[in-house]
Amino acid sequence: MKKINSILVAVAMTSATLFFGACSDEPTDNNNNNSSDVIISENITANTTWTKDKNYVLAGRIAVTSGVTLTIEPGTVIKAQAGTGANATALIIARGAKIMAEGTSTAPIIFTSIADEIKSGEISSPNLDAGFDGLWGGLIILGKAPASLKGDISETVIEGIPPTDPNGFYGGNVADDNSGVIKYVSVRHGGANIGEGNEINGITLGGVGSSTVIENVEVIGNQDDGIEFFGGTVSVKNAVVWNAGDDAIDTDQAWAGTLDNFVVVCGPNTDHALEIDGPEGSMIAGHIVKNGWVKGSSVAELADFRSNAQGSFENIYFLGFPDPATDGRGDFSLDAATSPNFTAGTLKFAGLEVTTTLTDLTKIFKNGTDVHAKAVNAGSNTVGATLGAFTGWSWTEKAGNLVP
Prior knowledge:
Elements: H1 6-19, E1 37-40, E2 48-50, E3 55-58, E4 61-64, E5 69-72, E6 77-80, E7 90-93, E8 98-102, E9 109-113, E10 139-142, E11 156-157, E12 169-170, E13 180-188, E14 193-195, E15 198-199, E16 203-206, E17 213-220, E18 227-230, E19 236-242, E20 249-252, E21 258-265, E22 272-277, E23 287-295, E24 301-306, E25 311-319, E26 332-334, H2 339-344, E27 347-354, E28 373-375, H3 395-398
Parallel strand pairs: 1-3, 2-5, 3-6, 4-7, 5-8, 6-9, 7-10, 8-13, 9-13, 10-16, 13-17, 16-18, 17-19, 18-20, 19-21, 20-22, 21-23, 22-24, 23-25, 24-26, 25-27, 27-28
Antiparallel strand pairs: 11-12, 14-15
C-alpha cells in the first residue's frame, strides 16, 4: 500500500533534470528555471529569510540547525527535488531551531515537488493532482518536549531520517519548548521512501513543545501519513489531510496536545483516517482530538486505537465509508491492549456521528464504542469541523472536497 509509484517519481526526476538544464525535447518549465531560483543544498546555519519573490528549491535533506531561525514570508513557494533512500529530500527543523512560517488566508506558504508548476499567489496546482505522491520527503519539526520511548530513553532519531544525522533527534524534558510558528501552510506530494516501511510523513512532529504555534495546515497527496505526532505537547488547530497513502492522522508515544477542528479526506490508498497509538515507555499521557469532519473512501477505516492508546475523542463526524468488511475496512475499533483503557475511562469518546446505511452501529463502532455514536443523514450532522476555517487558502476546499 505504500510502495513507491515509479511513474510519479519518474515525473519528478524528469522535472528535476529539466531544472538543471539537461537537453530535452520537452518544453522547459520556466517557473522552475529562472533567475529567481535559490537552490538550498546545505544545512541552514544562520538566521535566514525566504521571500515570496524567489523560488526556493530543496536539493536534499536540509536541516535548520539548533539556535537558528528560518523565516518564510507569506505566499512563498518552496519546491523539492526528487530523492529516495538516504537522499530523500526534506526540510528538518532541528531541536533548538525555529521556523517562522506565517502565511495568511490569502497568501499561504506552499511546500511541494519541483514537478509542480504552481507559482506564488496560486492555490491549486496547474499540472499535478492529489494522486501524485512520494515525489519528495516532507516537513519535519523536532523539539525537546517529552515522548514516551522504548526503554525509557529521553531522546531518539525520528523515523524517515537516517540515524547518522545528528539533526534528526527529538525528545527531552522541556514541555513548553518552542519550535516557532506555522500558519497557513500547505505540504504537497511528499512521503518519499528511505527504506522498507520507512517513509516520511507530510508533517512530522517529534517532541514538539506547547509553545509552538501550529494553525491552518494542510497535507495533500502524501505517500505515508498526513500528520504524525511522536510524543510532545504541541497543539494543532485547523488541519486538513487529503489523500494520505497510509494514515491521515497518526499519534504515537504519548503525545499530550490537542487537535482541534480538523478535516480528513481519504483517498484510494488511505488505510486509517485516525491511527491512535499509545506510550512506548513508562511515561503515560493522553491527547484530545475534537471537532473533526472525516470523509472516507472505499478502502479506508474510520479509526484504529492500539497499543494502550489513551485520550479523549469527541464531536467527530464520519461519512463516505464502506460498510464494514471482514478485513476491518470501514470500522472504528480498539485492540486488546487498549480496550481496558476505555473501560477505565482513560480513553474517552463522545459525540461520534456517522452517515451509513446500517442500522446496527455495533458493526461499525466496535468494542462497546457504539454507545457514544449515532447515525445521521448526510448534511444533518450536529458535530464536526467548522469547514469555513479552510476557505480560500486550502487546495482541498478549492477542489470541492469539503462537501458531503
